[in-house]
Design brief:
Blueprint lengths: L8 E7 L12 E7 L7 E10 L3 H5 L20 E8 L9 E4 L6 E5 L4 E2 L16 H13 L7 E4 L5 H12 L4 E6 L2 H9 L5 E4 L5 H8 L4 E6 L3 H10 E9 L20 H4 L3 E4 L9 H14 L6 E5 L4 H10 L5 E5 L1
Parallel strand pairs: 8-9, 8-11, 9-10, 11-12, 12-13, 14-15
Antiparallel strand pairs: 1-2, 3-4, 3-6, 3-15, 4-5, 5-7
Helix pairs in contact: 2-3, 2-8, 5-6
The structure holds NADP nicotinamide-adenine-dinucleotide phosphate.
Length: 339
Protein backbone atom coordinates (compact mmCIF):
# COMPACT_ATOMS: atom_id res chain seq x y z
CA UNK A 1 0.00 0.00 0.00
CA UNK A 2 1.25 3.51 -0.86
CA UNK A 3 2.55 5.76 1.91
CA UNK A 4 -0.26 7.93 3.24
CA UNK A 5 -0.01 11.58 4.03
CA UNK A 6 0.99 11.74 7.70
CA UNK A 7 3.24 14.07 9.69
CA UNK A 8 6.69 12.65 10.45
CA UNK A 9 6.28 13.07 14.20
CA UNK A 10 3.67 13.70 16.87
CA UNK A 11 3.76 14.37 20.59
CA UNK A 12 3.14 11.64 23.20
CA UNK A 13 3.35 11.46 26.98
CA UNK A 14 5.73 9.13 28.79
CA UNK A 15 5.80 8.27 32.47
CA UNK A 16 9.17 9.67 33.51
CA UNK A 17 9.10 8.63 37.18
CA UNK A 18 6.79 6.66 39.48
CA UNK A 19 4.95 9.13 41.74
CA UNK A 20 5.46 8.82 45.47
CA UNK A 21 2.18 9.99 46.99
CA UNK A 22 0.74 12.88 44.97
CA UNK A 23 2.08 12.92 41.39
CA UNK A 24 3.99 16.00 40.25
CA UNK A 25 4.63 17.49 36.80
CA UNK A 26 8.16 16.04 36.62
CA UNK A 27 6.72 12.49 36.76
CA UNK A 28 5.58 13.04 33.15
CA UNK A 29 7.47 13.86 29.94
CA UNK A 30 6.11 15.09 26.60
CA UNK A 31 8.11 13.44 23.83
CA UNK A 32 8.24 13.93 20.05
CA UNK A 33 7.92 10.48 18.42
CA UNK A 34 7.66 9.17 14.84
CA UNK A 35 4.13 8.69 13.46
CA UNK A 36 3.99 5.15 12.04
CA UNK A 37 2.25 4.29 8.76
CA UNK A 38 -0.60 1.80 9.30
CA UNK A 39 0.36 -1.82 8.54
CA UNK A 40 -2.11 -4.40 7.25
CA UNK A 41 -5.34 -4.21 9.29
CA UNK A 42 -4.24 -0.99 11.01
CA UNK A 43 -5.46 2.59 11.09
CA UNK A 44 -3.83 5.86 12.11
CA UNK A 45 -5.99 8.20 14.16
CA UNK A 46 -5.48 11.86 14.88
CA UNK A 47 -6.82 12.10 18.41
CA UNK A 48 -9.34 14.86 19.02
CA UNK A 49 -9.95 14.27 22.76
CA UNK A 50 -7.99 12.40 25.41
CA UNK A 51 -9.38 11.04 28.65
CA UNK A 52 -7.71 11.48 32.02
CA UNK A 53 -9.13 9.11 34.63
CA UNK A 54 -8.55 8.28 38.29
CA UNK A 55 -7.61 4.63 37.55
CA UNK A 56 -4.52 5.91 35.72
CA UNK A 57 -3.02 6.87 39.07
CA UNK A 58 -2.94 3.20 40.11
CA UNK A 59 -1.23 2.31 36.82
CA UNK A 60 1.63 4.67 37.72
CA UNK A 61 2.59 2.34 40.60
CA UNK A 62 4.62 -0.75 39.83
CA UNK A 63 2.11 -3.15 41.35
CA UNK A 64 0.05 -5.95 39.89
CA UNK A 65 -3.55 -4.93 39.36
CA UNK A 66 -6.42 -5.49 36.93
CA UNK A 67 -4.75 -3.02 34.53
CA UNK A 68 -0.99 -3.35 33.85
CA UNK A 69 1.33 -0.65 35.25
CA UNK A 70 2.61 2.02 32.86
CA UNK A 71 6.23 1.31 31.89
CA UNK A 72 8.79 3.98 32.68
CA UNK A 73 10.00 5.90 29.62
CA UNK A 74 7.30 4.45 27.39
CA UNK A 75 4.11 6.03 26.02
CA UNK A 76 1.14 6.08 28.37
CA UNK A 77 -2.30 5.02 27.16
CA UNK A 78 -5.94 5.59 27.98
CA UNK A 79 -9.26 6.43 26.35
CA UNK A 80 -9.25 8.64 23.26
CA UNK A 81 -11.52 9.65 20.40
CA UNK A 82 -10.48 11.02 17.05
CA UNK A 83 -10.59 10.74 13.29
CA UNK A 84 -8.96 8.20 11.03
CA UNK A 85 -6.28 9.97 8.94
CA UNK A 86 -4.81 6.86 7.25
CA UNK A 87 -6.32 3.41 6.85
CA UNK A 88 -5.03 0.03 5.83
CA UNK A 89 -8.04 -1.77 7.30
CA UNK A 90 -11.24 -2.89 5.67
CA UNK A 91 -14.32 -1.00 6.86
CA UNK A 92 -12.39 2.07 8.10
CA UNK A 93 -12.12 5.16 5.93
CA UNK A 94 -10.25 8.40 6.34
CA UNK A 95 -12.56 10.74 8.25
CA UNK A 96 -14.29 8.04 10.32
CA UNK A 97 -14.70 8.94 14.00
CA UNK A 98 -13.42 6.25 16.36
CA UNK A 99 -12.90 5.57 20.04
CA UNK A 100 -9.85 3.57 21.14
CA UNK A 101 -7.32 3.13 23.95
CA UNK A 102 -4.16 4.84 22.68
CA UNK A 103 -4.65 8.18 24.38
CA UNK A 104 -2.01 10.50 25.91
CA UNK A 105 -0.75 11.27 22.36
CA UNK A 106 -1.61 13.20 19.21
CA UNK A 107 -1.43 10.37 16.66
CA UNK A 108 -2.11 6.68 17.25
CA UNK A 109 -1.49 3.79 14.84
CA UNK A 110 -3.35 0.71 15.98
CA UNK A 111 -5.06 -2.52 14.97
CA UNK A 112 -8.48 -1.47 13.69
CA UNK A 113 -9.98 -4.36 15.68
CA UNK A 114 -9.20 -2.31 18.82
CA UNK A 115 -11.12 0.75 17.60
CA UNK A 116 -14.88 1.28 17.76
CA UNK A 117 -16.64 3.60 15.37
CA UNK A 118 -18.70 6.27 17.11
CA UNK A 119 -21.50 8.41 15.78
CA UNK A 120 -20.70 12.16 15.90
CA UNK A 121 -24.33 12.88 14.95
CA UNK A 122 -25.67 11.24 18.12
CA UNK A 123 -23.40 13.18 20.50
CA UNK A 124 -20.25 15.34 20.44
CA UNK A 125 -17.12 13.17 20.19
CA UNK A 126 -15.96 13.96 23.72
CA UNK A 127 -19.16 12.43 25.15
CA UNK A 128 -17.83 9.00 24.15
CA UNK A 129 -15.16 9.42 26.82
CA UNK A 130 -17.70 10.36 29.48
CA UNK A 131 -21.45 10.07 29.69
CA UNK A 132 -21.71 7.72 26.68
CA UNK A 133 -18.37 6.00 27.36
CA UNK A 134 -16.68 4.03 30.10
CA UNK A 135 -17.69 6.32 33.01
CA UNK A 136 -21.33 6.34 31.85
CA UNK A 137 -21.40 2.56 31.57
CA UNK A 138 -19.81 2.33 35.02
CA UNK A 139 -22.62 4.44 36.46
CA UNK A 140 -25.36 2.54 34.63
CA UNK A 141 -24.09 -0.96 35.43
CA UNK A 142 -22.90 -0.06 38.92
CA UNK A 143 -26.26 1.30 39.98
CA UNK A 144 -28.72 -0.92 38.13
CA UNK A 145 -26.85 -4.26 38.20
CA UNK A 146 -24.25 -4.19 40.95
CA UNK A 147 -26.32 -2.28 43.52
CA UNK A 148 -29.56 -3.93 42.33
CA UNK A 149 -31.26 -0.51 42.40
CA UNK A 150 -35.04 -0.63 42.98
CA UNK A 151 -37.64 2.08 42.56
CA UNK A 152 -38.19 3.81 45.89
CA UNK A 153 -34.57 3.37 47.06
CA UNK A 154 -32.79 6.25 48.77
CA UNK A 155 -29.42 6.53 47.03
CA UNK A 156 -26.24 8.24 48.20
CA UNK A 157 -23.37 8.76 45.76
CA UNK A 158 -19.95 10.28 46.51
CA UNK A 159 -17.80 12.03 43.94
CA UNK A 160 -21.22 13.14 42.77
CA UNK A 161 -20.15 16.04 40.55
CA UNK A 162 -17.69 13.90 38.59
CA UNK A 163 -18.14 11.84 35.44
CA UNK A 164 -19.42 8.66 37.10
CA UNK A 165 -21.16 10.23 40.10
CA UNK A 166 -23.18 12.83 38.19
CA UNK A 167 -24.56 10.08 35.98
CA UNK A 168 -25.32 7.74 38.88
CA UNK A 169 -27.42 10.36 40.66
CA UNK A 170 -29.40 11.26 37.57
CA UNK A 171 -30.06 7.64 36.57
CA UNK A 172 -31.32 6.99 40.11
CA UNK A 173 -33.67 9.98 39.84
CA UNK A 174 -34.91 8.94 36.39
CA UNK A 175 -35.46 5.35 37.56
CA UNK A 176 -37.66 6.44 40.48
CA UNK A 177 -35.42 6.81 43.51
CA UNK A 178 -37.21 8.10 46.57
CA UNK A 179 -34.34 10.41 47.38
CA UNK A 180 -30.94 11.06 45.80
CA UNK A 181 -28.11 12.51 47.88
CA UNK A 182 -24.67 13.48 46.64
CA UNK A 183 -21.40 14.69 48.11
CA UNK A 184 -18.77 16.77 46.37
CA UNK A 185 -15.84 19.01 47.21
CA UNK A 186 -17.08 22.58 46.70
CA UNK A 187 -20.12 24.82 47.16
CA UNK A 188 -20.28 25.31 43.39
CA UNK A 189 -20.41 21.55 42.81
CA UNK A 190 -23.08 21.12 45.49
CA UNK A 191 -25.23 23.78 43.79
CA UNK A 192 -24.77 22.02 40.43
CA UNK A 193 -25.97 18.73 41.91
CA UNK A 194 -29.20 20.21 43.18
CA UNK A 195 -29.91 22.88 40.57
CA UNK A 196 -28.76 21.15 37.36
CA UNK A 197 -28.84 17.42 38.04
CA UNK A 198 -31.96 17.29 40.26
CA UNK A 199 -30.41 15.73 43.36
CA UNK A 200 -32.73 16.06 46.39
CA UNK A 201 -29.87 16.97 48.71
CA UNK A 202 -26.13 17.47 48.51
CA UNK A 203 -23.29 18.47 50.79
CA UNK A 204 -19.66 19.58 50.61
CA UNK A 205 -17.69 16.84 52.37
CA UNK A 206 -15.09 19.43 53.38
CA UNK A 207 -17.65 21.20 55.60
CA UNK A 208 -17.46 18.70 58.50
CA UNK A 209 -17.51 15.02 59.46
CA UNK A 210 -19.10 13.11 56.56
CA UNK A 211 -21.23 11.00 58.94
CA UNK A 212 -22.86 14.16 60.37
CA UNK A 213 -23.41 15.76 56.95
CA UNK A 214 -24.92 12.54 55.60
CA UNK A 215 -27.16 12.17 58.63
CA UNK A 216 -28.56 15.67 58.01
CA UNK A 217 -29.10 14.96 54.29
CA UNK A 218 -30.60 11.49 54.84
CA UNK A 219 -32.23 11.47 58.26
CA UNK A 220 -34.13 8.24 57.45
CA UNK A 221 -31.02 6.42 56.23
CA UNK A 222 -30.07 5.13 52.79
CA UNK A 223 -30.67 1.92 50.81
CA UNK A 224 -27.84 2.22 48.27
CA UNK A 225 -24.39 3.75 48.52
CA UNK A 226 -22.41 4.20 45.28
CA UNK A 227 -18.83 4.59 46.51
CA UNK A 228 -16.38 6.56 44.40
CA UNK A 229 -14.31 7.78 47.34
CA UNK A 230 -13.77 5.13 50.08
CA UNK A 231 -12.39 5.97 53.54
CA UNK A 232 -14.47 8.29 55.69
CA UNK A 233 -17.27 8.35 53.09
CA UNK A 234 -17.59 4.57 53.15
CA UNK A 235 -17.61 4.55 56.94
CA UNK A 236 -20.36 7.18 57.02
CA UNK A 237 -22.42 5.24 54.48
CA UNK A 238 -22.10 1.96 56.40
CA UNK A 239 -23.45 3.83 59.39
CA UNK A 240 -26.38 5.30 57.42
CA UNK A 241 -27.35 2.18 55.46
CA UNK A 242 -30.60 0.47 56.36
CA UNK A 243 -31.03 -3.29 56.77
CA UNK A 244 -30.32 -5.11 53.47
CA UNK A 245 -28.61 -2.00 52.09
CA UNK A 246 -26.32 -2.38 49.10
CA UNK A 247 -22.98 -0.77 48.29
CA UNK A 248 -21.26 -0.55 44.92
CA UNK A 249 -17.52 -0.32 45.55
CA UNK A 250 -16.59 1.56 42.40
CA UNK A 251 -13.61 3.65 43.45
CA UNK A 252 -11.65 4.92 46.46
CA UNK A 253 -10.13 8.13 45.15
CA UNK A 254 -9.55 9.49 48.67
CA UNK A 255 -6.73 6.98 49.07
CA UNK A 256 -5.15 6.74 45.59
CA UNK A 257 -2.28 9.02 46.60
CA UNK A 258 -1.93 7.70 50.15
CA UNK A 259 1.35 6.15 51.19
CA UNK A 260 -0.11 4.48 54.30
CA UNK A 261 -3.17 2.30 54.92
CA UNK A 262 -6.54 4.10 55.20
CA UNK A 263 -7.91 4.82 58.68
CA UNK A 264 -11.52 4.09 57.72
CA UNK A 265 -13.93 2.31 57.53
CA UNK A 266 -13.74 1.19 61.17
CA UNK A 267 -17.37 0.03 61.38
CA UNK A 268 -17.50 -2.83 58.88
CA UNK A 269 -18.86 -5.08 61.60
CA UNK A 270 -22.21 -3.26 61.22
CA UNK A 271 -22.55 -4.99 57.83
CA UNK A 272 -23.30 -8.23 59.66
CA UNK A 273 -26.33 -7.13 61.66
CA UNK A 274 -27.64 -4.96 58.85
CA UNK A 275 -27.11 -7.80 56.33
CA UNK A 276 -25.40 -5.34 53.95
CA UNK A 277 -24.05 -6.34 50.58
CA UNK A 278 -20.83 -4.60 49.49
CA UNK A 279 -19.73 -5.50 45.98
CA UNK A 280 -16.76 -4.34 43.94
CA UNK A 281 -17.15 -3.69 40.23
CA UNK A 282 -15.15 -3.19 37.07
CA UNK A 283 -16.71 -1.48 34.07
CA UNK A 284 -15.08 -3.99 31.71
CA UNK A 285 -17.25 -6.81 33.10
CA UNK A 286 -20.41 -5.07 31.87
CA UNK A 287 -19.74 -4.75 28.13
CA UNK A 288 -22.84 -6.81 27.42
CA UNK A 289 -24.95 -3.92 28.77
CA UNK A 290 -23.43 -1.41 26.35
CA UNK A 291 -26.16 -1.38 23.69
CA UNK A 292 -28.94 -1.02 26.27
CA UNK A 293 -26.94 1.66 28.08
CA UNK A 294 -26.28 3.74 24.94
CA UNK A 295 -29.92 3.47 23.88
CA UNK A 296 -31.36 4.44 27.27
CA UNK A 297 -28.84 7.11 28.26
CA UNK A 298 -28.74 8.42 24.67
CA UNK A 299 -32.53 8.81 24.84
CA UNK A 300 -32.32 10.78 28.10
CA UNK A 301 -29.65 13.02 26.57
CA UNK A 302 -31.81 13.69 23.52
CA UNK A 303 -34.95 14.54 25.50
CA UNK A 304 -32.93 16.62 27.98
CA UNK A 305 -33.81 14.62 31.08
CA UNK A 306 -30.16 13.77 31.76
CA UNK A 307 -27.49 16.44 31.70
CA UNK A 308 -23.74 16.22 31.62
CA UNK A 309 -20.85 18.58 32.03
CA UNK A 310 -17.31 18.42 30.77
CA UNK A 311 -14.23 20.28 31.88
CA UNK A 312 -12.15 20.70 28.74
CA UNK A 313 -8.43 21.44 28.94
CA UNK A 314 -6.95 22.68 25.66
CA UNK A 315 -3.79 21.21 24.17
CA UNK A 316 -2.02 17.84 24.30
CA UNK A 317 0.82 19.61 26.13
CA UNK A 318 -1.54 20.15 29.09
CA UNK A 319 -2.61 16.49 29.51
CA UNK A 320 -0.52 15.84 32.64
CA UNK A 321 -1.80 19.07 34.20
CA UNK A 322 -5.39 18.01 33.36
CA UNK A 323 -4.78 14.66 35.07
CA UNK A 324 -3.37 16.36 38.17
CA UNK A 325 -6.26 18.84 38.14
CA UNK A 326 -8.80 15.99 38.04
CA UNK A 327 -7.18 14.37 41.09
CA UNK A 328 -7.51 17.71 42.93
CA UNK A 329 -11.16 18.15 41.94
CA UNK A 330 -10.73 20.86 39.27
CA UNK A 331 -13.39 19.20 37.10
CA UNK A 332 -17.18 19.31 37.04
CA UNK A 333 -18.29 16.29 35.04
CA UNK A 334 -15.79 14.53 32.82
CA UNK A 335 -12.26 15.93 32.55
CA UNK A 336 -11.05 15.72 28.92
CA UNK A 337 -8.21 17.17 26.92
CA UNK A 338 -8.92 18.70 23.51
CA UNK A 339 -5.85 17.89 21.46
N1 LIG B 1 -14.62 0.32 38.97
C1 LIG B 1 -14.62 0.83 37.75
O1 LIG B 1 -14.74 0.14 36.73
C2 LIG B 1 -14.50 2.32 37.61
C3 LIG B 1 -14.68 2.95 36.38
C4 LIG B 1 -14.61 4.35 36.30
C5 LIG B 1 -14.33 5.08 37.45
N2 LIG B 1 -14.14 4.42 38.62
C6 LIG B 1 -13.90 5.17 39.87
O2 LIG B 1 -14.98 6.06 40.03
C7 LIG B 1 -14.53 7.23 40.72
C8 LIG B 1 -14.92 8.46 39.90
O3 LIG B 1 -14.26 8.41 38.65
P1 LIG B 1 -14.53 9.53 37.53
O4 LIG B 1 -13.85 9.09 36.32
O5 LIG B 1 -15.98 9.81 37.50
O6 LIG B 1 -13.73 10.76 38.11
P2 LIG B 1 -14.35 12.19 38.51
O7 LIG B 1 -15.29 11.97 39.64
O8 LIG B 1 -14.85 12.85 37.29
O9 LIG B 1 -13.06 12.97 39.01
C9 LIG B 1 -12.45 12.66 40.21
C10 LIG B 1 -13.07 13.47 41.37
O10 LIG B 1 -12.72 12.88 42.60
C11 LIG B 1 -12.92 13.84 43.61
N3 LIG B 1 -11.94 13.65 44.68
C12 LIG B 1 -10.60 13.76 44.60
N4 LIG B 1 -10.06 13.51 45.81
C13 LIG B 1 -11.07 13.27 46.66
C14 LIG B 1 -11.15 12.97 48.05
N5 LIG B 1 -10.05 12.87 48.84
N6 LIG B 1 -12.36 12.78 48.61
C15 LIG B 1 -13.47 12.87 47.85
N7 LIG B 1 -13.46 13.15 46.52
C16 LIG B 1 -12.27 13.35 45.94
C17 LIG B 1 -12.75 15.21 42.96
O11 LIG B 1 -13.97 15.94 43.13
P3 LIG B 1 -14.33 16.77 44.48
O12 LIG B 1 -14.14 18.21 44.13
O13 LIG B 1 -15.75 16.40 44.72
O14 LIG B 1 -13.40 16.31 45.54
C18 LIG B 1 -12.54 14.89 41.49
O15 LIG B 1 -13.22 15.77 40.63
C19 LIG B 1 -13.05 7.05 40.93
O16 LIG B 1 -12.84 6.53 42.22
C20 LIG B 1 -12.67 6.04 39.88
O17 LIG B 1 -11.51 5.31 40.24
C21 LIG B 1 -14.21 3.07 38.72
Amino acid sequence: MAEQDLPATGREWHLAARPQGWPVASDFALVEAPVRQPGPGEITVRNAYLSVDPYMRARMNDVKSYAPPYALGAPMDGGAVGHVVASNAEGFRVGDAVQHWLGWREYATLDAAHAVKVDPELAPLSAYLGVLGMPGLTAYAGLLEVASFREGDTVFVSGAAGAVGSTVGQIARLKGAKRVIGSAGSAEKVATLVDDYGFDAAFNYKDGPVAELLDQAAPDGIDVYFDNVGGEHLEAAIGALRVHGRVTLCGAIAQYNDTSAPAAPRNLVLAIGKRLRLQGMLAGDHAALRDRFVEEVGGWLRDGSLRYDETVVEGVENTAEAFLGMLRGANIGKMVVQV
